[in-house]
Design a protein that fits this description.
The protein is mainly alpha-helical. The protein has 18 helices and 2 strands. A two-stranded antiparallel sheet has the order 1-2.
Length: about 425
């Protein structure tokens, strides 16, 4: 496959990274044209030059499933209003992030993110800083969801391939504990500094306005239906149909006062839908290239799977990246095509699979496009007029100085 086919994906990636920084007004008006045009170039080439309609169709189905699921969680969670105190202290913030990391394994990283991001913003609105949003993405939208197949799409795909449901939990719990613990420790240090900078009189005045209340409780039922529907594998689009009907029911039964209190609009999900349409389309050649190159890889180790799965999951969809390296490990260690439920008992395959799983889930936090909820959280924060770092600043000011050292510690402790 020609490497030139990857250029539209690189162009879109650079546009997302640089255009909001240098041409913010132009980008806010024209990003749909950029994303959809670049995607159309790739789709046209695959349809009319390579005659690979099957790949395009498969990608379209994946995109529809992705946007239906993430859109449903956004809309349903928008019908749940959690009233919070106007100012939380660092201890309370750490507790909320820790609870969110646990919920990410029950509701999925997307579900937990959509449920908690609005209360998180309101809890910290009197002193909110970019790091509040970034650590929310780090912990709840990514690292937290590494304990169960529900937690993150790559792990769910492993479950569908035959990995026992609770197999991953016991093996990733130590990595989860170290990573979440270190992130919470760093967050506490930053948040304590920010909290101390507020005048004591300001803190007392704000803390008088405390009220905890949950409205729209029925939407938890709709949320449960959506999460159960994820396990439906066939027939085609039955799962999506159930999710759409549930979402419509949720939206129509939610009081307008709740939507108003949540500042609910469709703009964030619209932005995500358009940008990811371009990303899914332009990513086709990159993923095809990865699958081709992966099959020829012979130098294998846990470090190899951890770093390669992780680095590629930072910019490509972490689910197909997981599957590509899963196939490499299986192809090298399972020549007799044993069931995966038996292969996970193979000690070397088990080590490889844990490295692939952690790399896919953890490294999804490295960029806004590394995992679906990342950009969703940013879009909601932007809607609340919160200053979020640009694509580049996210990497230079948070990923490299904070995540990279933690990922090196994880590698040294468990995969070296």
């Amino acid at each position: 496959m020609s490497y030139f086919l990857v250029l539209p994906f690189i162009a879109l990636l650079l546009s997302i990274a640089l255009a909001p920084l240098f041409f913010p007004d132009w980008w806010s008006k024209h990003y749909p044209k950029v994303a959809l045009s670049l995607g159309a170039v790739v789709i046209f080439y695959y349809l009319f030059q390579l005659h690979s309609a099957d790949i395009v169709l498969h990608t379209a189905i994946e995109y529809i499933s992705f946007i239906v699921f993430i859109g449903a969680l956004y809309i349903v969670s928008g019908g749940i209003h959690i009233s919070t105190k106007d100012l939380t202290n660092p201890y309370e913030n750490v507790l909320v992030l820790f609870i969110g990391a646990i919920l990410a394994n029950i509701l999925g990283t997307t579900g937990a993110s959509m449920l908690l991001i609005r209360p998180w913003i309101k809890m910290n609105k009197s002193r909110i800083q970019p790091y509040h949003i970034i650590f929310f993405i780090f912990i709840i939208s990514n690292v937290g969801g590494s304990l169960t197949p529900i937690g993150d799409p790559p792990l769910f795909l492993g479950y569908l391939k035959g990995v026992p449901f609770w197999w991953i939990t016991a093996r990733t719990l130590p990595m989860w504990g170290v990573a979440v613990g270190l992130l919470l420790l760093i967050f506490y240090f930053l948040d304590s500094k920010n909290y101390r900078e507020l005048k004591k009189s300001t803190v007392k005045e704000i803390e008088k306005k405390e009220e905890w209340k949950i409205e729209g409780v029925i939407n938890f039922m709709f949320l449960g239906i959506i999460l159960l529907a994820v396990f439906i594998d066939s027939p085609l689009f039955l799962r999506e149909g159930i999710i759409i009907v549930t979402t419509v029911a949720s939206y129509l039964t939610t009081k307008k006062t709740i939507h108003s209190a949540n500042h609910f609009t469709f703009h964030p999900i619209q932005e995500v839908a358009i940008l990811f349409a371009g990303i899914f389309a332009t990513m086709i050649p990159a993923l095809e290239l990865l699958r081709t190159e992966a099959q020829s890889m012979t130098t294998l180790s846990t470090s190899f799977f951890y770093w390669n799965t992780g680095l590629l999951s930072s910019f490509l969809d972490n689910a197909p990246t997981y599957l590509s390296f899963f196939s490499v490990a299986e192809g090298n260690l399972n020549p007799n095509a044993l069931p995966i439920s038996e292969m996970v008992q193979h000690p070397i395959f088990a080590k490889y699979l844990v490295a692939i799983s952690i790399g896919a889930v953890f490294f999804g936090a490295n960029t806004y496009i590394g995992n679906g909820p990342n950009f969703m959280v940013k879009s909601i924060a932007d809607h609340y007029n919160i200053s979020t770092p640009s694509f580049i600043r996210y990497i230079t000011h948070f990923t490299i100085p904070i995540l990279l050292p933690i990922f090196i510690v994880i590698w040294w402790l468990f995969f070296f």
